[in-house]
Amino acid sequence: MGSALARNWLRAGRAVRVWNRTASRAKPLADDGAVVCGTPAEAVAGVDTVVTMLFDAEAVAGAIIDAAPAPGTLWVQTSTVGVAGAQRLAALAAERDLVFVDAPVVGTRQPAEQGTLTVLASGPDEVRGRVEALCGPIAARVRWLGAAGTGSRLKLVLNSWLGNAVAATGQALALADGLGVQPRLFLELIEGGPLDMAYAHLKGGAMLAGEYPTAFPLNGAAKNMALVVAAAGDAGVDASLTAAARDLFAAAADGGHAEADMAAVYEAIRVR
Ligand SMILES: NC(=O)c1ccc[n+]([C@@H]2O[C@H](COP(=O)([O-])OP(=O)(O)OC[C@H]3O[C@@H](n4cnc5c(N)ncnc54)[C@H](OP(=O)(O)O)[C@@H]3O)[C@@H](O)[C@H]2O)c1
């Protein structure tokens, strides 16, 4: 995701400095015109805006602490970090006098590469124009949602819907198979009706093919479902449905599919 963002900014003529923990993954961006840096501190030297796109809040906090951007720098945090994660990062920004915008994104690898993500931005209104201009090359839509943290809250709601829907698709297909019904009949049955969703065909097709080219990695889905369960628990909402889905994602990841697409959750559900 980080590489896709950087490439879109470079294509739009923006100056981009990048850092990634595993240097070999950032290095190809030099061919696109990025300044590839050896440390987070080097990457933020002289910039007015820092964007983080890393796995989780722990990784983001570590990178920002090492980077130590200058006070007053705009920090647009685009990773999915959950409610507590966004609060932790906002506190880190406040300690360091950074202008924090919580801005998780909706959309997988392809929309990221095409610059058609939706950004769920929340932060101080004074920087709204700057954030919208920044997001022009990476997003089809920027939703400005108010106080920092609202973006991460809405993102978790979406993650809950999405993760449960993918796990439910897997369960329906596996159930059909287990009951001796052609699983494709389920997809055909819902097609075009009120029970349909494009994702059932996209992810269900991958499940039935047993091929999981990564649009959104399974380990990321497991992380996101754990964030949903934590946030739901704190909010007094029963999260048992999502907890069951989280366990299935985690089991499929442990089964060797961590880097595969989240559709590989099917491997933890299907008939043995
Ligand atoms: N992929 C999607 O479809 C999608 C969609 C929406 C939101 N997101 C969110 O976007 C974020 C990035 O996802 P991704 O798909 O790009 O994941 P990814 O390909 O697995 O990349 C994860 C990144 O985090 C870095 N990282 C992990 N642990 C770290 C640590 N402890 N310290 C420093 N860096 C660390 C990795 O560095 P290394 O290269 O060194 O491992 C890598 O740069 C996640 O929060 C994800 O939930 C993803």
Automatic annotation (TrEMBL):
Domain 3-hydroxyisobutyrate dehydrogenase-like NAD-binding residue range list: 149-268
Coiled-coil ranges (or none): none
Domain of life: Bacteria
Pfam families cross-referenced by the UniProt entry: NAD_binding_11, NAD_binding_2
Keyword Ribosomal protein among record annotations: no
Entries under SUPFAM superfamilies matching the protein: 6-phosphogluconate dehydrogenase C-terminal domain-like (SSF48179), NAD(P)-binding Rossmann-fold domains (SSF51735)
GO MF: NAD binding; NADP binding; oxidoreductase activity
Residue ranges of every copy of the 6-phosphogluconate dehydrogenase NADP-binding domain listed in the record: 1-146
InterPro entries reported in the protein's UniProt record: 6-PGluconate_DH-like_C_sf, 6PGD_dom2, 6PGDH_NADP-bd, HIBADH-like_NADP-bd, HIBADH-related, HIBADH-related_NP60_sf, NAD(P)-bd_dom_sf
Keywords: NAD, Oxidoreductase
Location of the active site: 155
Protein family (similarity comment): Belongs to the HIBADH-related family.
Listed name of the protein: 3-hydroxyisobutyrate dehydrogenase
Naturally occurring in which organism (per UniProt): Virgisporangium aliadipatigenens
Gene that encodes it: mmsB_1
